[in-house]
Each structure stands twice: as structure tokens, then as C-alpha cells.
Structure to design on (167 residues):
């Protein structure tokens, strides 16, 4: 969902709006709150994860102590644990690169731009105050180059057809 590390760690079950396919991100960087899209596959993964601990306050509670302690704690999973989990997952998948929450956030933004999502929408989803910050996240890929080429060709074809029909 393109969340920052702290935003992920502080997610609460009540922030999930499954019916609207959105997640409420409260008190983000700069004290701002926002709604972000919730893909169905992410919803299902969050539900499976929550079922492992059933903490009513946090989606990612600190996993120390007995089952009842984990179920009722108000302490979040620590940053290092989440980062280690990502490292273990990427290694087990055979991904040779060092993947971080930040690199996942950048990849998310890049994939959105490849699918044609407006940069201002991406700015809102990522909660950037300035569009220049968002633009740093948007990496030029072969997909974006091909998409741009095709859009330009389609535009020019349409203009040519319109011009020829007036002649």
C-alpha cells in the first residue's frame, strides 16, 4: 500500500475499511491522516496475519510473552523485527537485492505510474507535502517508456485522422 514503516507498525484493525477497500492512516508524518486504497489480496493477507494473534488494538503487535499478552498488548512490533522479516522473506524467495520498506514504497509508486495513475493521486497516497518528493519516487522504467511512446503514437494518430478528415 506504499506505507512508511511507522504507518505500517501502527495499523489498527479498526483502520481497515474492507467494504470501501480503504485503510485509514492516522497521524502520519507531519501529523496528517489519509485514506489509501486497500487491494483485496492485501486485505486477505492482513486478515490471515491478524488471525495469528487476534489483538484488537494492533495489526502488528509486539510478539513477546504468552498468547494472552500478545493479544492484549498495546506495544507495536519493533522496527528491526519488521525489517528482519522482510530480509528473511526476500532471501527465501531468492531475491539477491537488499529490500527495505523504503524500496517497497518506491516500487509501489513506480508500479502505480506504470499503470497510468496520476502523479497527484500518488502524491496523496504516499502523503507527500510536495510533488517534487513524489517525483523522486517515480523511476523511469522500460514500461513507462513504452507506455509514453504508445500514448504519444495514439495521440498523433488521432490528430492525423482528425486533420485528414477536415482536408
Amino acid at each position: 500500500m506504499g506505507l512508511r514503516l511507522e504507518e505500517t507498525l501502527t495499523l489498527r484493525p479498526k483502520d481497515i475499511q474492507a467494504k470501501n477497500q480503504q485503510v485509514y492512516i492516522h497521524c502520519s508524518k507531519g501529523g496528517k491522516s489519509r485514506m489509501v486504497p486497500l487491494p483485496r489480496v492485501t486485505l486477505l493477507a492482513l486478515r490471515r496475519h491478524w488471525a495469528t494473534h487476534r489483538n484488537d488494538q494492533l495489526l502488528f503487535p509486539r510478539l513477546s510473552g504468552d498468547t494472552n499478552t500478545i493479544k492484549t498488548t498495546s506495544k507495536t512490533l519493533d522496527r528491526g523485527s519488521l525489517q528482519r522479516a522482510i530480509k528473511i522473506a526476500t532471501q527465501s524467495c531468492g531475491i539477491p537485492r537488499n529490500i527495505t520498506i523504503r524500496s517497497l514504497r518506491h516500487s509501489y509508486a513506480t508500479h502505480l505510474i506504470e499503470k497510468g495513475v496520476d502523479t497527484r493521486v500518488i502524491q496523496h497516497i504516499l502523503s507527500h507535502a510536495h510533488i517534487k518528493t513524489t517525483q523522486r519516487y517515480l523511476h523511469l522504467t522500460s514500461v513507462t517508456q513504452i507506455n509514453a511512446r504508445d500514448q504519444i503514437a495514439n495521440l498523433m494518430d488521432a490528430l492525423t485522422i482528425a486533420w485528414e478528415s477536415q482536408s
Remarks:
- The longest strand covers residues 22-25.
- The CA atoms of residues 26 and 77 lie 17 Å apart.
- The chain is about 55% helix and 5% strand.
- Residues 1-99 form a domain with the hpI Integrase; Chain A fold (CATH 1.10.443.10).
